[in-house]
Amino acid sequence: MLRRTLVLTLMLCAAALAVLSSPAAARNVELLRGTVRPLSHSASGTAAVVSTGSGRRVLTLRSFRLDPGPRVRVWLVPRSAQGDGQLPKDRVDLGKLKGTRGNQQYTIPKSVDLRKYSSVVFWCVPFTSGLARADLRRS
Amino acid sequence: MSRLLAAVAAIAALLAVLAGGIWLFGAVVAGSTAAAVVLVGAWFAVVGLATEAATRRRSSLRMVLRIAFVTTTVVLLGAGAYTSTHETTVNEALDTGPPASRAAPAAVDDLLAPQP
């Protein structure tokens, strides 16, 4: 009886260790955060960069709102980039803006150095204009 | 048949010239919103006038290209107005986590750096 209990306990401990050491069990961490502020369009919301337990890094936009514009892209740019009226040459394109309102997130490529690209710009391509931006700081 | 082909080719050329100008002046050359609007507007005016001049002695082509030019302008203005006023709402599930200030600074630096 004692032996059976011991074996069962060991098996449970091994299973718990396996789960805890798996990548999925690794915890998410919010690395950066900033407020979305308007440039040429009205905008609001919170932008954050989260490192997920699975090893991905994502840009999240919470309670986001931006006055619409044609062909809006989401770019990561260095903090020093103007981004309001001048086309930032040094940028990382995260893709087309999914929506002008609501919660949304974008995968950040692994090659991106977030110590350098720490601002988000919402860029209107046809009008060569930054609609809004968020400067991210360490959470 | 040759007239039809000529009309189709002329319309295709007109659209290509207009689209090329939008891309060149709106997205490449212009450094600001105002410059993009002015340059693209000027490009349309130049192309419109050039089309009129080029088809002065070809009345059959002239009307076809006028229609194509006006239709393109109206469609582009309409598309611009639509995308500038149309709201789209998304509600994705967001990844969240505790702030990095609770973690060791070195670990945070590793996560901010390019990932292997």
Automatic annotation (TrEMBL), chain A:
<dbReference type="Pfam" id="PF10517">
    <property type="entry name" value="DM13"/>
</dbReference>
<feature type="signal peptide">
    <location>
        <begin position="1"/>
        <end position="26"/>
    </location>
</feature>
<feature type="domain" description="DM13">
    <location>
        <begin position="34"/>
        <end position="137"/>
    </location>
</feature>
<dbReference type="InterPro" id="IPR019545">
    <property type="entry name" value="DM13_domain"/>
</dbReference>
<protein>
    <recommendedName>
        <fullName>DM13 domain-containing protein</fullName>
    </recommendedName>
</protein>
<keyword id="KW-0732">Signal</keyword>
UniProtKB/TrEMBL annotation, chain B:
<protein>
    <submittedName>
        <fullName>Uncharacterized protein</fullName>
    </submittedName>
</protein>
<keyword id="KW-0812">Transmembrane</keyword>
<feature type="transmembrane region" description="Helical">
    <location>
        <begin position="29"/>
        <end position="51"/>
    </location>
</feature>
<keyword id="KW-0472">Membrane</keyword>
<feature type="transmembrane region" description="Helical">
    <location>
        <begin position="63"/>
        <end position="82"/>
    </location>
</feature>
<keyword id="KW-1133">Transmembrane helix</keyword>
